[in-house]
Fold this sequence. Notes:
The protein is of the alpha/beta class. It is built from 6 helices and 12 strands. The strands form 3 sheets. It has a 7-stranded mixed β-sheet, sandwiched between helices. Strands 9-8-12 form a 3-stranded antiparallel β-sheet, with no helix packed on it. The chain has a two-stranded antiparallel sheet with strand order 5-6.
Amino acid sequence: MMLDMVHDIQAAYRKLVDSMSRPGTISDLSDEAGKLEQVQGCLPATYIAALMLLDTEVTFKVVSEREAEVTHLLSQSTYAKDAQLEEADFIFILRDAAPGYLHSAMEAAKIGELTDPHSSATVIIETESVTCGTKLRLSGPGIQSTAKAEIHGTEAWIDIRAERNAEFPLGLDLIVTDTSHRILALPRTTQVVKEEI
C-alpha cells in the first residue's frame, strides 16, 4: 500500500497538531511511515513532516552531510524552495549533521518580528529517540501543570532555544522526530528545563 498524499498526510497532520497543542504528547507516525517506499537520507517521520509542512509558498534548509541529496528529495516532493539558513521557514537538522550544527542553525534561524511573529522558522530535529535520553520538564500553554519528555542526544539546544524564545511572541518552534517514527513538538510557548538527577 502506498502513502495517500491526501488522507494519510491529513491524518499525520492531525497528530502533529495534537502534539503541538499538548506539548510533551508523542505522536506515532508508524502507520504513515509504513506506507512509504524506501526514503534515502532522512528518517521516514522527517519526510512525512516535510510532506505536511512544505509547499510552494515556503522555503526550507537541510543541515546534513547529505544536504544536496535530501534537498533534492524535498524539493521534488513538495515544490518548496531551498533557502539560506537565515531565511528558511523550515530547517531540517538531520542525525548526521556535524556536532555543533544544531546550535549554529538555531542561532541563525529567524525568530520573526514583533509586527509579524509568524515569519519565524520551525526547526525539525532528528534524533534516535523521543522516549529515552535527557529528561526534560515542560510547562506552559497546553500543559496542566508540568509534563515530562525525554530526548536522546545533545542538550546544547536547550539553552539556545531559551535565548531565542525569550522575547515572546518571537521565537522558534521545534519538532523532534525519531527512528521509531515518533514525533514530539515543542512550541515556542513551552518552557523546557533539564531535570536534575
